[in-house]
TrEMBL record:
Domain Acyl-CoA oxidase/dehydrogenase middle, chain residue ranges per copy: 1-95
Keywords: FAD, Flavoprotein, Oxidoreductase
Database matches in PANTHER family: ACYL-COA DEHYDROGENASE, ISOVALERYL-COA DEHYDROGENASE, MITOCHONDRIAL-RELATED
Annotated GO MF terms: acyl-CoA dehydrogenase activity
Domain Acyl-CoA dehydrogenase/oxidase C-terminal: 107-255
Family: Belongs to the acyl-CoA dehydrogenase family.
Organism (species): marine sediment metagenome
Classification via InterPro entries: Acyl-CoA_DH_CS, Acyl-CoA_Oxase/DH_mid-dom, Acyl-CoA_Oxase/DH_mid-dom_sf, AcylCo_DH-like_C, AcylCo_DH/oxidase_C, AcylCoA_DH/oxidase_NM_dom_sf
UniProt cross-references to SUPFAM superfamilies, sorted A to Z: Acyl-CoA dehydrogenase C-terminal domain-like (SSF47203), Acyl-CoA dehydrogenase NM domain-like (SSF56645)
Record's keyword annotation contains Oxidoreductase: yes
Name this polypeptide is given: Acyl-CoA dehydrogenase/oxidase C-terminal domain-containing protein
Cofactor: FAD
Length: 258
């Protein structure tokens, strides 16, 4: 899913990649940054301007670019989190794709991208909830096994209250996410619900994984501890698929326009 570029992150419409029609092909030039699964993809969906004189909702189109298309190359990017999903920078140098690889209508790509982000924010929330759930389960189990001062650390209220708050946080995010997913399935699509669940679930995952680290004490900081991975992986959640700041813009705008 190639939208983000070096100069177009939160301001996705500032993308600089272009696709110029020549006969029965489009010639794509530009590059994309931080693209999930970029190094292993069979094809990329690439957003590019087909008409710069138009506003984004009329000037951007989306294309399928197959992996072996001449002019399409990529470089793997190293990151400290979510190492199970590779990330790449994609490069398009006079990359010619058949006109039939245009998705939908020319110039409507930005609308398709925004719609897909709406659904994506719900599944992104599910990832955050899964991470938090794993961290919570690890922490709950550890508090019952770890003995200090002659008793399981769960017996210390300072610890069991953390566990209680973690459980509530996860449950709240889960139901917010289910509601957004249900509304999406019913076609009751408003950007608020998906942005709300994304914002809440991603920040919740950071709170819960951070508490799981604290509950594990020193063992959490060891490289082979699962909780440090949950902690690292959740750090990305408030940045990808639209940052928390952008979600708040979407939510606050929606509150006065719906
Ligand atoms: C691991 C990873 C995977 C990704 N996968 C993909 C992918 O598959 N496809 C894809 O297209 N993109 C992908 N991205 C890109 C991701 O969507 C962007 O990183 C994200 O949208 C933020 O853009 P940016 O990093 O350029 O930050 P910027 O937009 O430069 O933001 C920097 C800071 O400024 C804040 N900011 C920006 N504008 C405003 C504003 N108007 N008001 C208030 N604050 C603002 C931001 O919230 C942030 O805190 C991925 C990124 C990462 C890190």
């Amino acid at each position: 899913f190639g939208l983000t570029e070096p100069n177009a992150g939160s301001d996705a419409a500032a993308l600089e990649t272009t696709a110029v029609k020549q006969g029965d092909k489009y010639i794509i030039n530009g590059n994309k940054k931080y693209i999930t699964n970029g190094p292993i993809c069979d094809y990329a969906l690439v957003a590019a301007y087909t008409d710069r004189s138009q506003k984004p909702s009329r000037g951007i189109s989306v294309f399928i670019v197959e992996r072996n298309t001449p002019g399409f190359t990529w470089t793997k990017m190293k990151k400290f989190c979510m190492r199970s999903a590779d990330t790449a920078e994609l490069f398009f140098d006079n990359c010619a794709v058949p006109a039939e690889n245009l998705i939908g209508e020319e110039g409507r790509g930005f609308v398709y991208v925004m719609e897909s982000l709406d659904g994506g924010r719900i599944s992104h929330s599910a990832t955050s909830i899964g991470l938090a759930q794993a961290a919570y389960e690890a922490a709950l189990s550890y508090t019952q096994q770890r003995i200090q001062f002659g008793q399981p650390i769960y017996n210390f209220q300072a610890i069991s209250f953390k566990i209680a708050r973690m459980a509530i946080d996860i449950e709240a995010a889960r139901w917010l996410m289910y509601r957004a997913a249900w509304m999406y399935d019913q076609g009751m699509r408003r950007f608020n619900e998906s942005a709300m669940t994304k914002l809440f679930a991603s920040e919740m995952a950071q709170r819960v994984t951070s508490e799981a680290m604290q509950i594990h004490g020193g063992v959490a900081l060891m490289s082979d501890s699962p909780v440090q991975r949950y902690f690292r992986d959740s750090r990305r959640a408030t940045i990808t698929e639209g940052t928390s700041e952008i979600q708040q813009i979407v939510i606050s705008r929606g509150l006065v326009t719906h």
